[in-house]
Amino acid sequence: MSEKQVTRRNFLYVTTGAFAAAGAASLAWPFVDQMNPDASVKALASTEIDLRPIIPGQSITVMWRGKPVFIRRRTQAEIDEAKKVNLADLPHPEEDSDRAQNPEWLVMVGICTHLGCVPLGQKGDYNGWFCPCHGSHYDTSGRIRKGPAPTNLEIPDYVFLNETTIKIG
Amino acid sequence: MSENYAPKSAVGKWFNDRLPLLNLIYGHLLPYPTPKNLNYWWTFGGILTFCLVTQIITGLVLAMHYVADADLAFASVEHIMRDVNYGWLLRYIHANGASLFFMAVYIHMARSLFYGSYKEPRELIWIIGVFIFLLMIATAFMGYVLPWGQMSFWGATVITNLFSAIPLVGESVTNWLWGGYAVGSPLLTRFFTLHYLMPFLIFALVILHVWALHVPGNNNPEGINVVQGSQDTVPFHPHYVVKDMFALVVFLVVFAGFVFFVPNLLGHTDNYIEANPLQTPEHIVPEWYFLPFYAILRSVPDKLGGVILMVSAIAILAFLPWLDTSKVRSAKYRPLYRQFVWLFFANVILLGYLGAQTADGLFLIIGRIATAYYFAHFIIILPLLGYIEKTKPLPKSLSEPVLSPEERQMKAAASGASA
Known about the structure:
The structure holds two protein chains of two kinds.
Chain A: H1 8-33, H2 39-43, E1 47-50, E2 59-64, E3 67-73, H3 76-83, H4 96-99, E4 105-109, E5 120-123, E6 128-131, E7 136-138, E8 144-146, E9 158-162, E10 165-168
Antiparallel strand pairs in A: 1-10, 2-3, 3-4, 5-6, 6-7, 7-8, 9-10
Chain B: H1 10-18, H2 21-29, E1 33-35, H3 44-63, H4 73-82, H5 87-115, H6 123-145, H7 150-161, H8 170-178, H9 185-213, E2 233-235, H10 236-261, H11 291-298, H12 303-318, H13 320-323, H14 335-355, H15 361-388, H16 405-418
Antiparallel strand pairs in B: 1-2
């Protein structure tokens, strides 16, 4: 028998402590989780947009989940420019066809992936978007080309409900 | 020092016998032995306490009129400025008070760096101070968000997005902070709550800061140990109470100058435009007191790297007592450190200047060099100086450096005779 005997009292200490810790942890969760997006915020999680008023070369900005979403009806020149880019030149390689379900329509979250500013359209070295905050340049497909942003502009989940309407989210 | 205090009144005695609160206050504020040579750089502790109390009182009354809701916040601040009796004054005191608070805390920290106040046995005072500084940064940042102007909104966006740099859980953490998918009302409400809470946490840490200070007693410009109660110390009251009061009055002149003559000098005009989530201002610049750290953030081309470096720039301060290997405290007796510490101060000011400029071209290159130097000061220069620097001989007492040669001889003869 070892000198340090495990007594009935030791067992009670450890199990009581373990139960108290588990109880405290489970009680802490509501206090943490209350800060997560609530039901009313989540309820606004999808938006439908009528695309008919937009002519080629025009963009609109819509709000989705409190964020701006750019919807651009690209010109043929912009589509060609986006398609002919060599993927090896990109910091975050993505095909244009993976970013636009219908090449004419580019739908993306209008938030710079660096620190969340709203980039300005048809500006910058790649004729796409330019973020004034810290100088990130995006191309006509919203892909990062130059500057501190780590990734391309985010593409939200969206579906074409019909020829002229999309649903984001 | 406080044990022999006896209240004179019967009520005081009755109270003190049951709760020795008067005893405690008396001991820490009146006869507390203080080195007799403290200069005006030592008055900033009292000034900072004044700043904290001012922010709490003005903040309390502003909260009686402010509404923490994204649709109402901006209008409620304008309501304070235009309609509430003396609202303009209270808000200008609070807004400029934050700036002056940081001005005072930077001077207070610089004094500690120059005179080596962070060294053994005062490491904990310094570390508690670093935590107070961290809380001040968080409080000031959250407070700046509350008026819900363009700078408030976009500053909050940029800073909360820093958390998205955390690998794997970054996005969940930012959504949790926002209570949504972008900066909005939920964030404003929680920032207001925390902005209200944190000054009281700071207050609690200030009590610990002073308590820890009163164990070894104050450092002093010579940086030598003084024996408490010897000829090198004087009672805190009236000597330093009066000196602190005088410094405070001078500080208040500057404070009033800002509040009454240039209340918006340190602010951004963009913040008088209501927050617009669809339009980012041309240049997002933080308040002046964050600029050095902002410059460090921007000097790194990588998002996560920039965030890590900026956090490290503050965290490294907590390790300062061990990074500085020299046993001599005061820069007065450290000929090399004396130059390097001034270089360090100049470098921080340079970083502050760069933080306000656009991060490209020459500014970016200088910013990177200045960032590298900031860290080099702590992890290369300070550890090495302790080994290569030849320090000057330290005086034996605070009187020695100011005595004439004759007086010094007399004193030496006297102590020789008594020995």
